[in-house]
Write a structure and sequence with these properties.
This protein is α/β, with parallel strands linked by helices. The chain has six helices and nine strands.
Length: about 160
Protein backbone atom coordinates (compact mmCIF):
# COMPACT_ATOMS: atom_id res chain seq x y z
CA UNK A 1 0.00 0.00 0.00
CA UNK A 2 2.92 2.34 0.59
CA UNK A 3 3.33 2.91 -3.17
CA UNK A 4 -0.37 3.72 -3.59
CA UNK A 5 -0.27 6.17 -0.71
CA UNK A 6 2.55 8.18 -2.30
CA UNK A 7 0.44 8.97 -5.38
CA UNK A 8 -1.55 12.19 -4.86
CA UNK A 9 -5.33 11.65 -4.78
CA UNK A 10 -5.92 14.89 -6.68
CA UNK A 11 -4.17 17.80 -8.31
CA UNK A 12 -0.65 18.45 -7.05
CA UNK A 13 0.00 22.18 -6.90
CA UNK A 14 3.77 22.75 -6.56
CA UNK A 15 4.80 24.91 -3.58
CA UNK A 16 5.92 27.64 -5.99
CA UNK A 17 2.36 27.86 -7.42
CA UNK A 18 0.34 27.35 -4.22
CA UNK A 19 -0.55 31.00 -3.68
CA UNK A 20 -3.84 32.48 -2.51
CA UNK A 21 -5.44 33.01 -5.90
CA UNK A 22 -4.53 29.51 -7.15
CA UNK A 23 -5.96 27.90 -4.03
CA UNK A 24 -9.08 30.07 -3.82
CA UNK A 25 -9.97 29.45 -7.47
CA UNK A 26 -9.89 25.68 -6.87
CA UNK A 27 -12.01 25.63 -3.70
CA UNK A 28 -14.55 28.36 -4.35
CA UNK A 29 -17.90 27.55 -2.75
CA UNK A 30 -16.89 24.05 -1.61
CA UNK A 31 -16.99 22.37 1.79
CA UNK A 32 -13.27 22.56 2.68
CA UNK A 33 -11.28 19.98 4.64
CA UNK A 34 -7.59 20.32 5.51
CA UNK A 35 -5.33 17.56 6.74
CA UNK A 36 -2.03 18.72 8.22
CA UNK A 37 -0.85 21.62 10.32
CA UNK A 38 0.92 23.53 7.57
CA UNK A 39 -1.97 23.14 5.11
CA UNK A 40 -4.49 24.26 7.73
CA UNK A 41 -2.32 27.21 8.70
CA UNK A 42 -1.94 28.24 5.05
CA UNK A 43 -5.69 28.32 4.46
CA UNK A 44 -6.42 30.18 7.68
CA UNK A 45 -3.76 32.75 6.71
CA UNK A 46 -5.69 33.26 3.45
CA UNK A 47 -8.86 33.96 5.41
CA UNK A 48 -10.37 30.55 4.65
CA UNK A 49 -11.62 28.63 7.70
CA UNK A 50 -11.85 24.95 6.73
CA UNK A 51 -15.06 23.22 7.87
CA UNK A 52 -12.95 20.29 9.07
CA UNK A 53 -9.32 20.73 10.13
CA UNK A 54 -7.22 17.71 11.07
CA UNK A 55 -3.89 18.51 12.75
CA UNK A 56 -1.42 16.78 15.06
CA UNK A 57 0.94 19.54 16.23
CA UNK A 58 3.77 18.07 14.16
CA UNK A 59 5.39 18.96 10.86
CA UNK A 60 7.69 16.36 9.34
CA UNK A 61 7.70 14.61 12.72
CA UNK A 62 8.89 17.76 14.55
CA UNK A 63 6.75 19.38 17.24
CA UNK A 64 5.12 22.68 16.36
CA UNK A 65 2.30 24.81 17.62
CA UNK A 66 -0.96 23.94 15.87
CA UNK A 67 -2.34 26.83 13.84
CA UNK A 68 -4.75 29.25 15.52
CA UNK A 69 -8.07 27.45 15.89
CA UNK A 70 -10.25 30.36 14.84
CA UNK A 71 -13.93 29.60 15.41
CA UNK A 72 -13.57 25.80 15.29
CA UNK A 73 -14.75 23.33 17.92
CA UNK A 74 -11.79 21.22 19.04
CA UNK A 75 -12.07 17.45 19.48
CA UNK A 76 -9.09 15.41 20.63
CA UNK A 77 -8.61 11.93 19.17
CA UNK A 78 -6.03 9.14 19.28
CA UNK A 79 -4.59 7.88 16.00
CA UNK A 80 -1.18 6.14 16.24
CA UNK A 81 1.31 6.53 13.37
CA UNK A 82 0.64 4.36 10.28
CA UNK A 83 -2.89 3.55 11.49
CA UNK A 84 -6.47 4.66 11.06
CA UNK A 85 -8.48 4.08 14.24
CA UNK A 86 -12.22 3.55 14.52
CA UNK A 87 -12.29 6.59 16.84
CA UNK A 88 -10.79 8.71 14.05
CA UNK A 89 -13.27 7.48 11.46
CA UNK A 90 -16.21 8.10 13.82
CA UNK A 91 -14.94 11.61 14.65
CA UNK A 92 -14.52 12.43 10.95
CA UNK A 93 -18.05 11.23 10.16
CA UNK A 94 -19.48 13.23 13.07
CA UNK A 95 -17.60 16.37 12.00
CA UNK A 96 -19.31 16.32 8.61
CA UNK A 97 -22.64 16.83 10.39
CA UNK A 98 -21.45 19.69 12.62
CA UNK A 99 -22.87 23.19 12.29
CA UNK A 100 -19.58 25.02 12.76
CA UNK A 101 -15.97 24.28 11.86
CA UNK A 102 -14.42 21.33 13.68
CA UNK A 103 -10.75 20.81 14.51
CA UNK A 104 -9.62 17.25 15.18
CA UNK A 105 -6.45 17.45 17.24
CA UNK A 106 -4.74 14.11 16.77
CA UNK A 107 -2.52 12.50 19.33
CA UNK A 108 -0.31 10.37 17.11
CA UNK A 109 -0.35 11.08 13.38
CA UNK A 110 -2.93 12.53 11.01
CA UNK A 111 -1.37 11.69 7.62
CA UNK A 112 -3.46 8.62 6.76
CA UNK A 113 -6.70 10.31 7.82
CA UNK A 114 -6.92 11.73 4.30
CA UNK A 115 -8.24 8.29 3.31
CA UNK A 116 -11.38 8.20 5.51
CA UNK A 117 -11.92 11.92 4.91
CA UNK A 118 -12.13 11.26 1.16
CA UNK A 119 -14.24 8.15 1.69
CA UNK A 120 -16.87 9.96 3.80
CA UNK A 121 -16.76 13.67 2.86
CA UNK A 122 -19.82 15.25 1.27
CA UNK A 123 -20.02 15.09 -2.53
CA UNK A 124 -18.20 18.06 -4.08
CA UNK A 125 -16.11 18.75 -0.97
CA UNK A 126 -12.50 19.76 -1.46
CA UNK A 127 -9.77 18.14 0.60
CA UNK A 128 -6.33 19.72 0.85
CA UNK A 129 -3.17 18.11 2.23
CA UNK A 130 0.56 18.50 1.83
CA UNK A 131 2.76 16.25 -0.29
CA UNK A 132 6.14 16.53 1.49
CA UNK A 133 8.81 18.22 -0.60
CA UNK A 134 6.43 18.67 -3.55
CA UNK A 135 3.47 20.88 -2.76
CA UNK A 136 -0.21 20.99 -1.97
CA UNK A 137 -2.66 18.30 -3.09
CA UNK A 138 -6.18 19.49 -3.84
CA UNK A 139 -8.80 16.75 -4.12
CA UNK A 140 -12.33 17.48 -5.34
CA UNK A 141 -14.53 14.65 -4.06
CA UNK A 142 -16.03 12.57 -6.83
CA UNK A 143 -17.47 9.06 -6.91
CA UNK A 144 -14.15 7.86 -8.33
CA UNK A 145 -12.11 9.32 -5.45
CA UNK A 146 -14.65 8.06 -2.89
CA UNK A 147 -14.56 4.52 -4.34
CA UNK A 148 -10.76 4.49 -4.49
CA UNK A 149 -10.36 5.61 -0.87
CA UNK A 150 -13.13 3.30 0.37
CA UNK A 151 -11.27 0.40 -1.27
CA UNK A 152 -8.04 1.51 0.46
CA UNK A 153 -9.85 1.55 3.80
CA UNK A 154 -11.19 -1.95 3.18
CA UNK A 155 -7.66 -3.19 2.42
CA UNK A 156 -6.43 -1.76 5.73
CA UNK A 157 -9.05 -3.48 7.89
Amino acid sequence: MRDKLQIPLGELLPDSEADGSAIKSRISGAYVVTVGDRTTEKLISLGIIPSLQIVDGLERRKKREPPDIGDAEEIRIENPPAQITRQSIDAIKAAFGAQRPVRLLVSGEEDLLVIPVCAYAPEGAVVLYGQPGEGLVIVRLTCQVRNKTAAMLDMME
